Amino acid sequence: MNKSVSVFLATLGLILSQLALAQQGTSDVRTLRGADAAVTDQAPAARPYAGKAPGRQKPIARTFGTQPPLIPHSIEDMDEVTLQSNPCISCHGPDNYKAARAPKMAGSHFKNRDAKTPSAMSQAWYQCTACHVPQVDAKPLVQNIFRGAVETKKKH
User: Fold this and answer.
1) pLDDT means per 10 residues in the chain (156 residues)?
2) 20 to 30 Å CA-CA from 130: which of 11, 66, 81, 152?
3) Which residues, listed in sequence order, are joined to residue 134 by a DSSP beta bridge?
4) Residue 36 domain-assigned (yes or no)
């Protein structure tokens, strides 16, 4: 018998046996989600941001070297970042960070994609919450065993 015909018949036999098992309700096919795989997931309840007003929290430790700093304060009552206005710069910009006692924006925010330094903040870095995110005190949605690669600094 031709090899391709043999493979076809074997595949057809497997499919028919799986269909017969499925009709009996004893199929070995399982999903990772359990029996109710078609049920729509429910969104978790909305949680308030963990931080309070700016300047009242300590910075959150980073878990890897190139991680953008996390926002340790609430941003819910702050104005939205628009083309005309960025409320983050009012505290973290080079002209105001000392008076606001806020961390200064990184120098990388003043370099464009060609590594040139324009006189103002590069627009590539203007939407702060694309990289910097506020934190919510919530239970993880999935198990997480991630351990950061950055060692904690020891105090001497």
Assistant:
1) 77 79 63 68 75 79 86 86 87 90 86 75 82 83 82 55
2) 152
3) 71
4) no
Judged by phi (left if over 0) then psi (alpha if -120 to 50, else beta), residue 21 lies in alpha
Q: How many CB atoms lie within 10 A of CB 119?
A: 5
pTM for the model stands at: 0.59
Beta-ladder partners of 122:
none
Same domain, 14 and 76: no
Do 77 and 23 reside in the same domain of the chain?
no
Phi and psi, residue 137, nearest 5°: -85, 90
Tell me which residue has tokens 């017969």. Answer: 20
Round to whole Å and give the CA distance between 61 and 118.
30
